Amino acid sequence: MFLIDTSKGRIVRDDEIKEELCNARPYQDWLDQSMVELDDLPAREITRRDEGDLTRLQQTFGYTHEELKILLAPMAVNAKEALGSMGTDTPIAVLSKRPRLLYDYFQQLFAQVTNPPLDAIREELVTAVGGSLGPEGNLFAPGPDSCRQVFLRSPGRWTAPDLTDDAVARFRLAVTEAGLEGACFAHAPYLLNLASSDGSLRRTSVDALVDELVRAGRLGLSGVVLHPGSAGVTPRNEAEARCRQAIVEAVDRAGERGAKLLLEGTAGMGAQLGASVAELAGLVDPAVSGRVGVCLDTAHLWGAGYDLTGDGWERVLGEVAEHWGLAAPHLLHANDTLVALGSRKDRHAPPGDGVLGASFYRRILADRRLRCTPLVVEIPPGDGNELIRAALARLRTWQKPRQAEGRRMAG
Q: Which top CATH class is 165-410?
């Protein structure tokens, strides 16, 4: 979004607009009070419409044969989002010689644009695949009643199904057989925000993090990676204090059952915390420093202003030594990137396909300070993980034989 505020005499940035809108009202409280999960509804007998009634409704609401055959049917049969177009290339109603529905006369004719399924890694915004049933109310005057909805279950949930002993045993055996002990990590849900000024969201985030740490501990994982969160529109120092306190609570509650918590550095987009190695370390209270580690992402470092093609890598490891007391981070996300240095944006690319290039990866693969640091690549996997396999194969060609000892790389 692009806004020129004439009263303030300035351009308002996209992230500022969205932060203000998101924090304008206690939306999370409204949702907690009013939204009902689909699974919580009482069972009832299902009544099905006959085919003739369904056809009449489809005609009434303007469904076409193309929409039914090309869009809806593939989604129902294959459980995959179909390719479609935004808008329509049919003649506008006033120029058509065929009978048209009344609302067609008020429909804008958009440009013909192909919309592929969203790529969540390359998209700047986090998108939700969940949906809800029920009236939305007046969008210009939202209130608690606007959230009286039935929520349809989606993959991005706050809670996860229970881990059975059998599932834990099978996972641990698979890790052992693959020779990956000490090199398996989990990533906490992106929904979490330990720095939020919304008490309800922060409490929910802490509860979810405790659950993630305990689950990871049962699975024998070496750590749970967490994005610290965003300050929103509140002062940064206050957000850091909230995040620090929330980390202490989560780690203490998980106790000895929990895996190590790894704070991941960010690109600093919007009001994100942890855009520098020093700021990331400042979020850790000394009382829990032994149970909290650091994860760095090369794409995030570049976006945050570390020139990794110049002296930025030595600067990074120097700050890790100064603020964390380590020779290298506990985990490295070795992603390339397509954005400009210091852009505060997070865009991943396969190693060597971005601005960092092959020379940077040869350099870090030869850095003996990283010989015990697992490397993870976060890119779209492709069919049958073909893109991940290709990226790992490329990294291995850049790694000299003697450097491979002890090195762990994963997609």
A: alpha beta
